[in-house]
Automatic annotation (TrEMBL):
<feature type="domain" description="Aminotransferase class I/classII large">
    <location>
        <begin position="34"/>
        <end position="386"/>
    </location>
</feature>
<keyword id="KW-0663">Pyridoxal phosphate</keyword>
<dbReference type="GO" id="GO:0030170">
    <property type="term" value="F:pyridoxal phosphate binding"/>
</dbReference>
<dbReference type="Pfam" id="PF00155">
    <property type="entry name" value="Aminotran_1_2"/>
</dbReference>
<dbReference type="InterPro" id="IPR051926">
    <property type="entry name" value="Ala_Aminotransferase"/>
</dbReference>
<keyword id="KW-0808">Transferase</keyword>
<dbReference type="InterPro" id="IPR015422">
    <property type="entry name" value="PyrdxlP-dep_Trfase_small"/>
</dbReference>
<dbReference type="GO" id="GO:0004021">
    <property type="term" value="F:L-alanine:2-oxoglutarate aminotransferase activity"/>
</dbReference>
<dbReference type="InterPro" id="IPR015424">
    <property type="entry name" value="PyrdxlP-dep_Trfase"/>
</dbReference>
<protein>
    <recommendedName>
        <fullName>alanine transaminase</fullName>
        <ecNumber>2.6.1.2</ecNumber>
    </recommendedName>
</protein>
<dbReference type="InterPro" id="IPR015421">
    <property type="entry name" value="PyrdxlP-dep_Trfase_major"/>
</dbReference>
<dbReference type="InterPro" id="IPR004839">
    <property type="entry name" value="Aminotransferase_I/II_large"/>
</dbReference>
<comment type="similarity">
    <text>Belongs to the class-I pyridoxal-phosphate-dependent aminotransferase family.</text>
</comment>
<keyword id="KW-0032">Aminotransferase</keyword>
Length: 410
């Protein structure tokens, strides 16, 4: 029989967070090995539960959740999102500008599907959250990666961004707070990105899913709050701020200069209707989450579990010879660098395989985030402190062995 091939559109798509190395980890688990999973920000498996009031509201409303909702979502949760955008100082947002989705991920893909024709380009950060690169490619577009500068707190390199804008560029993706680096962008930088978009008539897509996971008193500013003369599409949801990944409840907000985007918005409406609606139980959680007690502040503030685990993970990682890391100001991740002189890595996926096989610790290699060199990897700092000490201790021994095997000295 003729082999059945996957679509050519998948040729440039990777999602290593759930890729071949995690698949190997799954096989090892089936063989009886205990794997420490530092590869994905799945908070519930590490004991970070959603607020009780969200859970109770979903239970109470479950009997009302069997039918389709409006294709953009129920009125009450969209109204709550509208109030949330007002609190973030994003001007001019109405109920009609808000789309609820099965997580922000669904809406990211929808937003690219509605925009891109073959040959269109979108500027995406490197490193990035790989769904963005995949969504552009699957929509027929070409992702063009602008560099974020590790020497400058992982901030986007504005000049690199400027050089990569062409006649085919349609949009700029801004992930702030950033996954995988944990960077948080200052207003001055956001204004420079806006000016680039203004000069070249580009849309700004703002992924702000970690906008409450902030450390050391940091504050997040939504880029869409800083201008109203260009089009912004902003994404957020319950997965991270409210530890509700599995509820698949997110939203997308269209703001700024909408009058010239009527056809694009019509496309968004068509796609929203085609998927019928977002899951109704998850929609019932939104109003309670946004209007209730913001327990995330207890986790990231002084004495909070996430803050303590960030500090511990940073200490344990940077104590390993040849490992450096920009301390994250936000989100759930670290993106440490391995000095190439000490760790001569040619294939970072193979490095992740070897680390998994020898230590039972699962990470994601930097190339999985479209990073340009095999010298980084991403870890989450979600396991409890004892488990992190154990995991990073095994990692440190592996690194020592790796240095010896490859003849590197320190």
């Amino acid at each position: 029989m003729r082999p059945i091939q996957k679509s050519n559109k998948l040729a440039e798509v990777c999602y290593e967070i759930r890729g071949p190395v995690p698949e190997k980890a799954r096989q090892m688990e089936e063989e009886g090995h205990k794997i420490t999973k530092l590869n994905i920000g799945n908070l519930a498996v590490f004991g970070f539960d959603p607020p009780d009031e969200i859970v109770q509201d979903m239970k109470i409303n479950l009997s009302n959740a069997a039918g389709y909702t409006d294709s953009k979502g129920m009125f009450a949760p969209r109204k709550a999102v509208m109030h949330y955008t007002q609190g973030k100082n994003i001007a001019g947002v109405t109920i009609d500008d808000i789309y609820l989705g099965n997580g922000a991920s669904e809406l990211i893909v929808m937003s690219m599907n509605a925009l891109l024709n073959n040959g269109d380009e979108v500027l995406v950060p490197a490193p990035d959250y790989p769904l963005w690169t995949a969504a552009v490619s699957l929509s027929g577009g070409t992702p063009v990666h602008y560099v974020c500068d590790e020497q400058q707190e992982w901030y986007p390199d504005i000049e690199d961004m400027r050089r990569k804008i062409t006649a085919n560029t349609r949009a700029i993706v801004v992930i702030n707070p950033n996954n995988p680096t944990g960077a948080l962008y200052p207003v001055e930088l956001l204004l420079q990105i806006i000016e680039l978009a203004r000069q070249h008539d580009l849309i700004i897509y703002a992924d702000e899913i970690y906008d409450k996971v902030l450390y050391d008193g940091a504050e997040h500013v939504s880029i869409a709050s800083l201008a109203d003369d260009i089009l912004f599409v902003t994404f957020n949801g319950l997965s991270k701020n409210y530890r509700a990944c599995g509820y698949r409840s997110g939203w997308m907000v269209v703001s700024g200069e909408k009058s010239h985007a009527k056809d694009y918005i019509e496309g968004l409406n068509m796609l929203a209707s085609m998927r019928l609606c977002a899951n109704a139980p998850g929609q019932f959680a939104i109003q309670t989450a946004l209007g209730g007690y913001q327990s995330i502040h207890d986790l990231v503030g002084p004495g909070g579990r996430l803050l303590k685990q960030r500090d511990l993970a940073y200490k344990l990682l940077t104590e390993i010879p040849g490992v450096t890391c920009v301390k994250p100001k936000a989100a759930l991740y670290m993106f440490p660098r391995l000095d190439p002189k000490i760790y001569p890595i040619a294939d970072d996926q193979q490095f992740a395989y070897e680390l998994l096989a020898e230590t039972k610790v699962l990470i994601v290699q930097g190339s999985g985030f479209n990073w340009i060199a095999p010298d980084h990897f991403r870890v989450v700092f979600l396991p409890n402190s004892d488990d992190m000490v154990e995991a990073f201790g095994r990692m440190a021994k592996f690194m020592e062995s790796y240095r010896k095997r490859h003849g590197a000295s320190f």
